Amino acid sequence: MQYHDIVIVGGGPAGLAAAIAARKTGISDILILERDNVLGGILNQCIHNGFGLHTFKEELTGPEYAARYIAQVEEEKIPYRLSTIVADITHDRQVTYINREEGLVTIQAGAVILAMGCRERPRGALNTPGYRPAGIYSAGTAQRLMNIEGYLVGREAVILGSGDIGLIMARRMTLEGAKVKVVAEIMPYSGGLKRNIVQCLDDYGIPLKLSHTVVDIHGKDRLTGVTIAEVDENKNPIPGTEEYYSCDTLLLSVGLIPENELSKGAGISLNRVTSGPNVNDRLETEAEGIYACGNVLHVHDLVDFVSQEAALAGENAAEYVKRKAALAGERNAAETAPAEKNAAAAAESEEDERPGYAEPDRHTIPLVAADGVRYTVPQFLETSGMRDTVTVRFRVADVYKDRYISVYYDDQLISRKKKKVLAPGEMEQVVLTKKSLAGYPHMKRITIRTEVE
What we know:
This protein is α/β, with parallel strands linked by helices and about 450 residues long. About 25% of the residues lie in helices and about 30% in strands.
């Protein structure tokens, strides 16, 4: 069976950044597997600007941002397979893929990095009544049709959901001459970045109706209109609030789901909030040597953060492979040693190779999300192999004003930072330091919560 030190599943921004970081950490045997016919992932269809401000200190379009990383992959001569579907990943890092040139192939990986990204939630998840006429698209599908294929999907549009893709498509369709009549959002707040609400809706006079949803779809062969209504606190339509909008297009921007079918096949447990794998501070899943990063781990708002996270996963995967190689070298040396030394070395190697982040000799600390914090990534912290700093990213459950983000070691308040506004559409973060943890050797949990005065 063919072997590669690191196999990366996905050639989007996460996979590319992970590959480059792993190469710079000293691993030369890397393989990227990408199902599309080009590298770059979703960025290829994101022709608007706003990317790269953190990573490259300049404003780029999505294709420009992707091109920077693709150029580095080419410069480093990192091999990749395009139009390649990964069919299976096992718990012990065997990867099975299929493409036209090679057929069905199974390879062994020293480490695997999951970077499959996410997909859009479809209409079938909404239980909206009506026929299934032409003219209903997910926002990302419409984006691809317009920006890559060159098709205008409609002339009069209603958008359901105020996620970032939906907001950006409201502007995109307006610039192409279509009329976007309204953006309806079932939640009492927008799911997108504040800057996108301003630049994509307010600047073009497109109304945003919060606590509203589509309750009926009209038209049998082609969409002719939709009815929207206000919803109560339980998300149930309020009778008498119905409004009809004539339109030929309905775009759905109703959430993103991490692509984790392969992760589940590998026996990796998923977090019930993020729908991504539970990971430790090295971004390692519960399957030893399998790491996750980017939108397959949790849905990000900025691609710059995806790249930062993926680079960390690449570095940690590289360190894991080098550590395993060193252990193998020690084992080979032990085989030529006297019998008693050989037995001692074998026992030591066996102890070092115990899998997972819950090893009994390691101090594993769970991170707890509480009081308005929905989740954290990572979900666990290992003090034994921790870097000097660990960035913990999270989202809040509602819109909060004048609240503190507080960090507790057990019941001891360690830090708090006041925020004027916290919103679910914008990711937050706190930084934990190894130095601060040193004073709490028997800590049982780290809690991140929001607090009022």
